[in-house]
């Protein structure tokens, strides 16, 4: 009699619930769902699926067994009974007939979308290449004019090969007031003397003590570099036509000018003749 009762109890005892064991152990340790998610790097949906035995919402069995094992280790539980319960559950699920809706089955070879995408991309590439060839071959191009201004690289290369020549400055020119023509007398206009040399208007600048003033003006693009007596580069730039630059430095000053014929240099309010120190359009000189 007792044996039959014990046998009936064993047969009707419920199987081990993976989710209930995990949930009970978690609550006993006063942990919430977010703690489990952070520690195991699982989503909240996956943790809830484990605790509710909703294994259909979880990945394939191999990955799910890893979830159960890691969860049990975190809660200091023996993972083997839980894994065995999950194996039994998986075996019973596999024994069930699987029904698949035919409308959800994708038959290989009938999906033409990728091929259409490839064809469209190929046609677009061909059109772009054709447009580029037409633009390169048939668009009007600017005429190749002879450049009288050297490029920056050419200027620097020519300046490196030029020879430094000292420049001796003569007496300073007459003050600016002397350059202004006198008013005509007896009501007649005085005829201005004809000259091919452009007149450079000098604006006098008072340099600081022990310093020299260099003023530069270019009618075309020109490169200028100036170094003071301490070998410090105080001016190094490409000058644009029509722009006037002024710099002060402690003499003697080493000056290199690319495209010197198109550049005017004034040292301490005195124009400097660059023709005598120019070689192949580059002038190198020393101002003291």
Structure description:
The protein is an alpha+beta fold and 288 residues long. Among the domains are: 8-95, 434 Repressor (Amino-terminal Domain) (Orthogonal Bundle); 152-168 and 205-287, no CATH class. Helices cover 36% and strands 17% of the residues. The protein contains 8 helices and 10 strands. The strands form 2 sheets. Strands 1, 3, 4, 6, 9 and 10 form a 6-stranded mixed β-sheet that branches. β9 (278-279) and β10 (282-287) form a beta hairpin. The chain is elongated, with a radius of gyration of 47 Å.
Chain-wise SSE layout:
Elements: H1 2-12, H2 18-28, H3 33-40, H4 44-51, H5 61-74, H6 79-95, H7 113-138, H8 152-161, E1 165-166, E2 212-218, E3 222-227, E4 233-239, E5 244-249, E6 253-258, E7 263-267, E8 270-272, E9 278-279, E10 282-287
Parallel strand pairs: 1-10
Antiparallel strand pairs: 2-5, 2-7, 3-4, 3-6, 6-10, 7-8, 9-10
Helix pairs in contact: 5-6
* Low-pLDDT ranges: 1-14, 143-150, 171-182, 184-195
Number of distinct helices? 8
Percent of residues in beta strands? Answer: 15-25%
Give the end-to-end Cα distance, rounded to a whole number of Å. 129 Å
Summarize the structure.
With 288 residues, the protein is an alpha+beta fold. Among the domains are: 8-95, lambda repressor-like DNA-binding domains (434 Repressor (Amino-terminal Domain)), CATH 1.10.260; 152-168 and 205-287, no CATH class.
């Amino acid at each position: 009699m007792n044996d039959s009762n014990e046998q009936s109890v064993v047969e009707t005892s419920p199987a081990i619930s993976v989710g209930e064991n995990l949930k009970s152990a978690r609550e006993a340790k006063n942990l919430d769902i977010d703690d489990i998610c952070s520690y195991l790097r699982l989503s909240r949906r996956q943790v809830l699926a484990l605790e509710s035995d909703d294994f259909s919402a979880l990945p394939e069995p191999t990955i799910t067994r890893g979830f159960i094992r890691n969860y049990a280790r975190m809660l200091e539980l023996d993972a083997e009974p839980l894994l065995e319960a999950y194996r039994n559950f998986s075996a019973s699920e596999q024994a069930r007939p699987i029904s698949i809706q035919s409308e959800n089955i994708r038959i290989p070879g009938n999906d033409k979308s990728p091929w259409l995408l490839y064809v469209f991309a190929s046609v677009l590439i061909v059109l772009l290449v054709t447009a580029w060839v037409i633009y390169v071959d048939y668009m009007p191009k600017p005429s190749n004019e002879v450049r009288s201004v050297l490029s920056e690289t050419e200027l620097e290369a020519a300046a490196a090969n030029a020879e430094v020549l000292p420049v001796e400055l003569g007496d300073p020119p007459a003050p600016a007031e002397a350059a202004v023509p006198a008013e005509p007398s007896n009501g007649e206009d005085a005829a201005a003397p004809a000259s091919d040399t452009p007149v450079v208007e000098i604006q006098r600048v008072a340099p600081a003590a022990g310093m020299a003033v260099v003023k530069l003006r270019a009618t075309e693009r020109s490169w200028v570099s100036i170094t003071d007596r301490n070998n410090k580069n105080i001016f190094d730039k490409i000058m644009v036509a029509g722009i006037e630059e002024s710099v002060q430095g402690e003499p003697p000053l080493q000056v290199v000018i690319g495209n010197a014929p198109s550049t005017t240099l004034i040292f301490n309010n005195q124009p400097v003749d660059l023709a005598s120190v120019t070689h192949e359009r580059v002038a190198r000189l020393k101002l003291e």
